[in-house]
Amino acid sequence: MLKNYITIAIRNIRKRKFFAGINILGMTAGITACLLIALYVIDEFSYDRFHANADRMYQVGLHEKFGERDVRRTSVCPPLADAMMAEIPEVESTVRMSPWLKLDIHYQEKSTTEYKVFFTESNFFEFFSFKLISGNARTALKEPNSIVLTEKTALKLFGDENPLEKIVIIGEGEYKATYKVTGVAADCPSNSHFSFDVLVSADGPDNYFKLNAWLNSGVYTYFLLQKNTPVSEVEKKFENIVTKYVTPELQKFLVNSLDQVRKSGGIYSFYATKITDIHLKSTSQFDIEPSGNMMYIYIFGGIGIFIVAIACINFMNMSTAQSTGRAKEVGLRKTLGSLRSQMIWQFLAESMLYSLVAVALAIMLCYFLLPAFNILSGKDLSMIHLLDIKFMLGAGIMLLIVGLLAGSYPAFYLTSFSPVEVLKGKVTSGLKSKGIRSTLVVFQFAISIFLIIFTLVVYAQINFMQQQQMGMDKENVLVIEAGDRLGKNGEAFRNAIAQQSGVSKVSFTVNKFPGVYSPGVMRSARSSGDHFVGVYRADFDFQDVMKFEMKDGRYFSKDFLADSTAVVINEAAAKEFGFDKAEGQEILHSPNGSFVPAHVIGIMKDFNFESYHDKVRPLAIFPWPFSAANMMVRYEGNAQTLIDNTSKLWKQYAGSEPFEYSFMDENFDKLFRSELRMGQVLSVFSGLAIFIACLGLFALAAFTAEQRTKEIGIRKILGASVGSLSMMLTKEFIVLVVIAFIPSAVLSWWASSQWLNEYAYRVNINQFIFVGAGVSAIAIAWLTVGYQSIKAARANPVDSLRHE
């Protein structure tokens, strides 16, 4: 029986090659898109699940809220882990890591600079399930001055030589130290919320983790929960640790007690995040590495479902369009004794065959399109992911869903008619009804228009973030990093750069935008109340480089010696302190653990120095009249010429040290890389959705023209023009697209508004976006249907009538 079903299905496909080709092409494109999106979603949900105890591993975070500043961070104080082990029995073990932003490693004549470097504890490889290829997991980081490299890093330094027990030199100048390579780890998997290239043992006399500094941060702390224990028990006992250890230290810097701060809405508490939730559900603004976004999972997942739905609708539309012929087939089969259940299976077998061919072709296409999809999505997926059991299971489920969904109409609707009525032609008029087809076309184009509008809004927001005036000029600013490698030659190098053609100003800064130091507690000298303010340190030329404007007062100047104890704040900070002007104002800050005064000499107009997701936060700039880690160069003219000249000067003043640089506008652009990537993905899949919808519309128009061949011939004989006939055939489809525009416009406006709510600075949704999307959809539909309409209208009426 199954063989008979398949044989008949193949015969029907061969009989209607054109429509079968349209169906298979549309279903293949839709399933390919859905499977690629499924690969993306599966990978996003796989983060950190490779750890043996992932279900019991948690990261500790700190939630601070003082005034209007509300911060959740993943770096906490060094002694917290020891206190947890001593006072929270539900904690089985802990491990700490502290990042080292940049590390120079030398071995004989070779050297490398690594940026993913962590100081960590000896149980690192016992806690996490990162693979150690060479060395002992228990002892690799136990001894002081021991270091573990990844395969990639070891290859840079040692080539084919065995790295174990080799001595390397890390650091520069007076900070140089010798370390022994005690292990080589496999390169970190791409689905880890953090990755490393170098691990350095924190054990030794200068172990930062042993400092009793409860208000310091910079330590990532993880703990393993005891089996069958709710994490809420640990979080409850965090409060005892805060009360016992943190409050006495915090009270030294707060005017009011912590209890009073909390009563006024303030927060200071530790919290736990399951390691498998960090990538997609982290609530921290400062993760170790950029995390994913659950909203994007919903968006991409929805797109995948929409595209497959459009492909299935194509199949159903063609089934309804050809329903007259198939109904006669059903009538004859029933007359000859076929059961309805047998015919249902026959129709489902046909749709399943379509689905099987489409899924097979889709998997092949996924293999060839995977490199391009990796570039588009920023992933590192490979053939291994295609062979993953979850992916193959998903492909099988997709086959069943698409086959059953697409074949449901002909299988259950067409087989329900009485054979007598079908053979007498009584159901023909009903089958020619366009109600079902019209509804499905409306649904298809509603989805397509929705995707067009949402994509246009995403790009409008991206353009807004790129072009919006930030209050400073981030264009034409070269950022030279690792200025500390210049040693005593920093000032000489700066002067040499300033003399280069096209260079207008040069400034040393301790840190760089985007971002600032962790906020520090500050007070107004004339009032009580604590404020968290971002700290930045720069020299006298910083304003000339960044071109921000002053609302009141002035910036630092070499002409005023008193500026060494001055501060410049932004409008957000002035609002927090209650300052209307700079003159006569003073704040208290604690650079070395005790409060010292700084007189305010200027108030800057607010400029956005961080992400557009958050409002401009309070900022204080303190003078730094020395060479520093970063150098900002304002230039005009050709950037490559400046880089070439600067590179030569770097070699002159820094010797063999690597020359590292970036551009400030590109650094800011990285903040919305995920939005840009989403825009690209949306563009591709929106285009694909429209293509699939147009395939169905094209086939439907061809079938409609074929069904109305006799009518068209008679109208031409009676004098109808090609234009009027083409309009007659096209009009009904255009009306359907116009109807589809209304619900899609409402839904896309709501969805776009929800997405834009994530941004403190956002574009206004322009009505022209909706108009443009609607006009585009109508134009695309007209072009799709127009060809078939004109072809039918230009046909010789004699041939048309002879055909009938």
Topology:
Layout (H helix, E strand, L loop, with lengths): L1 H14 L1 H29 L11 E10 L2 E5 L1 E2 L3 H8 L3 E10 L2 E5 L2 E5 L2 E4 L3 H4 L4 E3 L11 E5 H8 L8 E4 L6 E9 L12 E4 L17 E7 L5 H20 L7 H6 L3 E8 L3 H4 L12 H28 L1 H13 L4 H38 L5 H4 L2 H24 L6 H5 L4 H4 L3 H33 L9 E5 L8 H9 L4 E7 L10 E5 L6 E8 L3 H5 L3 E4 L12 E5 H7 L8 E4 L6 E9 L14 E5 L6 E6 L3 H16 L5 E4 H6 L3 H35 L1 H9 L4 H35 L10 H27 L3 H7 L1
Parallel strand pairs: 7-12, 9-11, 18-23, 20-22
Antiparallel strand pairs: 1-2, 1-13, 1-14, 3-13, 4-7, 4-13, 5-6, 5-10, 8-11, 9-12, 10-11, 15-24, 15-25, 16-24, 17-18, 17-21, 19-22, 20-23, 21-22
Describe what this molecule looks like in 3D.
The chain is α+β, with helices and mostly antiparallel strands. It has 26 helices and 25 strands. The strands form 3 sheets. Strands 1, 2, 3, 4, 5, 6, 7, 8, 9, 10, 11, 12, 13 and 14 form a 14-stranded mixed β-sheet that branches. A hairpin with a 6-residue loop joins strand 17 and strand 18 (531-538). Helix 9 runs parallel beside helix 13 (389-412), helix 11 (340-377) crosses helix 13 and helix 16 packs across helix 25 (767-793). The longest helix is centred in the middle third of the chain and has 38 residues, at 340-377. The protein is elongated, with a radius of gyration of 34 Å. It starts with a helix and ends with a helix. The model has no long low-confidence stretch (mean pLDDT 82).
